[in-house]
Amino acid sequence: MTNTIIRDIAAKDHPHWMILWAEYLRFYREKLPVEITDATWAVLMETDGAIKGIVAEKSGIVVGFALYLFHPSTGSLHCNCYLEDLYVAENSRGGGVARALILEVYKRADIAKAGRVYWQTQQYNAPARALYDTLAKVTSNVQYERY
Fold first, then answer.
1. How many domains does the chain have?
2. Does 18 fall in a domain?
3. What letter would DSSP give residue 116?
4. Is residue 23 left, alpha or beta, with left meaning phi > 0 and alpha meaning psi from -120 to 50?
5. Any idea what the CATH number is for the domain that residue 76 is in?
6. Domain presence at residue 17
7. What one-character-per-residue DSSP string does 66-91 give?
8. How far apart are CA 34 and CA 30, in angstroms?
9. Which of 41, 111, 118, 124 has the greatest number of C-beta atoms within 10 Å?
10. CB burial string 49-68: b at 16+ within 10 A, e below
11. Angle of helix 14-27 relative to helix 34-45, nearest 10 degrees?
């Protein structure tokens, strides 16, 4: 992970983030209206926005991002941290960027005294799951979505 900087997302990151966001959506076979992408970016730019963002930067280029949020929990006196989106450019994978992003989210969750940090991924995402298995435990939860 030589020369990788993990930092808060900033307005200057918009062009790189848009490229990575499009790759992320394509990877997860997701199509979103441009209004949702624009609204997501707008929330990321709010000082007290509900969704927080960090980026991994190498040589001035954003090569990855993590988007997370804190929310109350009925099972804890503390908030929980949901790592909603994580993506690293294909040509930057395998070098510790995703690990660094997750560890930074862990650090921020610790500062916020979050009760837990959790995320989900597709079953077919084997390379990412191999990393996740070194950083977190798989739970027995099954996710349901409204029809």
1. 1
2. yes
3. -
4. alpha
5. 3.40.630.30
6. yes
7. EEEEEE--TT-SS-EEEEEEEEE-GG
8. 12
9. 41
10. eebbbbbbbbeeebbbbbbb
11. 130
**Helix, strand, coil percentages, rounded to 5, for the chain:** 40, 25, 40
- For the stretch 75-133, pLDDT in tens is 889 999 999 999 999 999 999 999 999 999 999 999 999 999 999 998 888 999 999 99
Sign for the CA dihedral angle at 104, 40, 23, 122 comes to positive
Q: Strand 117-118 relative to strand 61-71: parallel, antiparallel, unpaired?
A: unpaired
Which SS3 state, helix, strand or coil, does residue 13 take?
helix
Q: What does the block give as tokens for 52? A: 């927080």
Q: Are 57 and 88 in contact, with CB atoms under 8 Å apart?
A: no
Would the pTM count as exceeding 0.90? yes
To which residue do tokens 């007290």 refer? Answer: 48
Q: For 36-89, how does the pLDDT look when each residue is reduced to its tens digit (9 = 90+)?
A: 999 999 999 999 999 999 999 999 999 999 999 999 999 889 999 999 999 999
In sequence order, the 6+-apart residues with CB closer than 8 A to the CB of 32 are 25
Which domain does 13 fall in, by range? 4-135
